[in-house]
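Progress note, sequence design subtask.
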């Protein structure tokens, strides 16, 4: 057998056996029999005319030739694996997958997305609205989303609400959130007008119980205490597990929600909601645009990042 005819499987068998110093463990790793590993290694030895192992009674050790071959093969297989992962990451290069919290996607991203689509018709957008956690690894071509109950497709970009510390990722600050009471304008001049914080005792409080960010995010207890509205009971009212549900309830005139001005900006501009009081509380965490470090420079990701950062700047000026 000539040098050019050495099968890749045989080289893989040698690399595994040399790494483990065991034909049995190599066989388990490659899902073959120890006899198959031994056969593949003999093919290489016959081709090269050298012995790669010293075969002892109950063990094996690398020969001088084997010691030369092992590190080169290990490096080669590592480079092959890295190349395959890099190419896999470029699959569907024209499609951009964005994972975002449902309320951010519905209330902030969707009203603006038509501008990106118009400017970049060559990029197809796929939005995953979820509260999934993200685990990014140094060699990932895309973010590996790890939800509690499923295994979704990888995302190119993830919108996170947190402190901005995401190892092995590029994280760009989008904007911070502040919360203040929001309600339908018809509550301002209704039967019980909403003019000052104490008037909230006559209205249903709507609670946003969205589970993201830190546990010390402001709530009705803190807001009422800070404005001195001691006569208002912060424990009563309706609770919602998504920001957009609380906002929709407020738009319908059901009550007053303590929620984000930034996410409600479109409803405030359209007059569907009003902020009856001037006092706001800033949340401790912020929205970040997150992408894996080695994928951040890809054209489709760069284009979306630049557009989204520009939209974020415009929304807070």
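Output:
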């Amino acid at each position: 057998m000539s040098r050019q005819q050495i099968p890749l499987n045989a080289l893989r068998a040698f690399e595994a056996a040399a790494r483990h110093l065991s034909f049995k463990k190599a066989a388990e790793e490659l899902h073959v029999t120890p006899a198959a590993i031994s056969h593949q290694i003999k093919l290489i030895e016959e081709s090269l005319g050298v012995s790669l192992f010293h075969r002892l009674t109950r063990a094996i050790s690398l020969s001088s030739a084997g010691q030369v071959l092992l590190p080169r093969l290990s490096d080669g297989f590592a480079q092959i694996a890295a190349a395959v992962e890099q190419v896999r990451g470029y699959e569907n290069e024209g499609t951009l997958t964005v994972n975002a919290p449902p309320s951010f996607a519905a209330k902030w991203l969707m009203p603006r997305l038509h501008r990106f689509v118009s400017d970049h018709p060559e990029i197809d957008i796929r939005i995953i609205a979820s509260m999934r956690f993200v685990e990014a690894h140094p060699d990932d071509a895309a973010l590996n989303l790890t939800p509690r109950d499923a295994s979704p497709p990888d995302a190119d970009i993830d919108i996170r609400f947190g402190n901005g510390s995401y190892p092995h990722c590029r994280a760009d600050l989008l904007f911070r959130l502040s919360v203040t009471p929001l309600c339908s304008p018809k509550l301002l001049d209704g039967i019980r007008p909403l003019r000052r914080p104490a008037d909230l005792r006559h209205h249903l409080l709507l609670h946003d119980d969205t589970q993201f960010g830190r546990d010390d995010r402001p709530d009705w207890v803190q807001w009422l205490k800070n404005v001195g509205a001691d006569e208002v009971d912060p424990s009563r009212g309706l609770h919602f597990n998504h920001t957009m549900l609380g906002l929709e309830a407020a738009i319908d005139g059901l009550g007053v929600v303590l929620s984000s001005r930034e996410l409600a900006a479109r409803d405030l501009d359209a007059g569907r909601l009003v902020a009856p009081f001037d006092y706001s509380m800033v949340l401790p965490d912020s929205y970040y645009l997150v992408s894996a470090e080695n994928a951040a420079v890809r054209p489709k990701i760069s284009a979306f990042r630049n557009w989204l950062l520009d939209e974020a700047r415009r929304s807070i000026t």
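The chain is about 40% helix and 20% strand. Work on this subtask will continue into the next period as scheduled.
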